[in-house]
Amino acid sequence: MQNPPDLRPDLAPKLRLADPARPGQPTIGMVSLGCPKALVDSERILTRLRAEGYAISADYAGAEAVIVNTCGFLDSAKAESLEAIGEALRENGRVIVTGCLGAEPDYITGAHPRVLAVTGPHQYEQVLDAVHAAVPPQPDPFVDLLPASGVTLTPRHYSYLKIAEGCNHRCKFCIIPDMRGRLTSRPAHAVIREAERLVEAGVKELLVISQDTSAYGADIAHAEERGHRAHIEDLARDLGSLGAWVRLHYVYPYPRVRNLIPLMAEGLVLPYLDIPFQHAHPDTLKRMARPSAQTKTLEEIAAWRAVCPDIALRSTFIVGYPGETEAEFAYLLDWLEEAQLDRVGCFQYENVAGARSNALPDHVPDEIKQDRWDRFMAKAQAISEARLAAKVGSLQQVIVDEIDEGGIATCRTTADAPEIDGNLFIDEDTGGLSPGDIVTVEVDEAGEYDLWGRLAP
């Protein structure tokens, strides 16, 4: 049983590449798969290449070589990566592979021996060396100007901000620490400087990401340098002073997370938490080797909502984990009903090469996994529909993402991250709006996952 891409709720937005090449300029293509953290890696690689005089092609035909940034979190993601590599080889023929799956070079070359090079995750220098060997640079310092914000693969008005790499958890279903190593936090002053450059370049929303955002700075003893301390609470406060929306992703429900909630109530940080709960039953969490404090999450959620009633909570879950009984799954459904999470994603457990969960007894049959996924998503959908219906008549601050040819504006409320959550649509009086505008909207209709509204007078 493998999860198709639409069951994996952590995928990054699609690439946006549009810069034309000058005559004679060497040109590289990019295929970026997987999560937003991988998208940031792709942006850094392309920024370095643009600084060296390369143009970035939006299609295979216009590229002299193609970089495929792979995902290796699940076997289904690995299969998707191999398929993307094969497509790039067919369409272009000159392919450099990097990213999480690059940690298994024999796996890649066994399927695609014609690739030019294979590098692992965040090995930027090795990727550049491989590009130089395949397509020598020909920089023209009078023509090749790099934007102050670097190369971004998302719309101009929002950007991902990676604050750390790696993870110290040893969850049995996950091989991220094996691929990306232990937690390595960036200095706080470097994060703030990058955020300042992004805001100066017009970014209106900063999406803070890492594998374990709430642990930020723990590996460097929360060091303070140049007036900024490497602690998630201090970082959130500093980012909140820049005037952009600040959205926190991948926050483990440690007790110290409660210190972030007052910042949301104050308006410094968006009232939004993306927390990977994965399951709710204590025995299942124990088999997953998840943090033990996670078993008291309902109490934490109640405490968060007491301080910040408007907080939106999103999470992802795994159903069909080895040993999951019907009673444990029923417990999860009851927990979900009580937790009333705003946004929920779910995927069916699958073995991943190298994961310790593969060796657990009592694997769940595929048909039962599918049945539990169907029941879980029906429950989550009903909760989402009810919570959105309660917003009809309210005023919501939204950010405009896009306006189509018919004048319909696709927006997001503070409760919605790009691509993975819902949207709010405005279908009249949008003539004066542009992507990146932040406006107030009165909600007049709700669906299962989306809202509709009109500009507030």
UniProtKB/TrEMBL annotation:
The keyword 4Fe-4S applies. SUPFAM superfamilies: Radical SAM enzymes (SSF102114). Its EC number is 2.8.4.4. Binds 2 [4Fe-4S] clusters. One cluster is coordinated with 3 cysteines and an exchangeable S-adenosyl-L-methionine. Residues 26-136 form the MTTase N-terminal domain. It is found in: Cytoplasm. Keywords: 4Fe-4S, Cytoplasm, Iron, Iron-sulfur, Metal-binding, Ribonucleoprotein, Ribosomal protein, S-adenosyl-L-methionine, Transferase. Its cofactor is [4Fe-4S] cluster. It is an enzyme of class 2 (transferase). GO terms for molecular function: 4 iron, 4 sulfur cluster binding; aspartic acid methylthiotransferase activity; metal ion binding; protein methylthiotransferase activity. GO terms for biological process: tRNA modification. Residues 153-386 form the Radical SAM core domain. Pfam families: Radical_SAM, TRAM_2, UPF0004. Gene3D superfamilies: Methylthiotransferase, N-terminal domain, Nucleic acid-binding proteins, tm_1862 like domain. InterPro entries: Elp3/MiaA/NifB-like_rSAM, Methylthiotransferase, Methylthiotransferase_N, Methylthiotransferase_N_sf, NA-bd_OB-fold, Ribosomal_uS12_MeSTrfase_RimO, rSAM, rSAM_horseshoe. Residues 389-457 form the TRAM domain. It comes from the Bacteria. [4Fe-4S] cluster 1 binds at C35, C71, C100. [4Fe-4S] cluster 2 binds at C167, C171, C174. It catalyses: L-aspartate(89)-[ribosomal protein uS12]-hydrogen + (sulfur carrier)-SH + AH2 + 2 S-adenosyl-L-methionine = 3-methylsulfanyl-L-aspartate(89)-[ribosomal protein uS12]-hydrogen + (sulfur carrier)-H + 5'-deoxyadenosine + L-methionine + A + S-adenosyl-L-homocysteine + 2 H(+). Belongs to the methylthiotransferase family. RimO subfamily. Catalyzes the methylthiolation of an aspartic acid residue of ribosomal protein uS12. This is Ribosomal protein uS12 methylthiotransferase RimO.
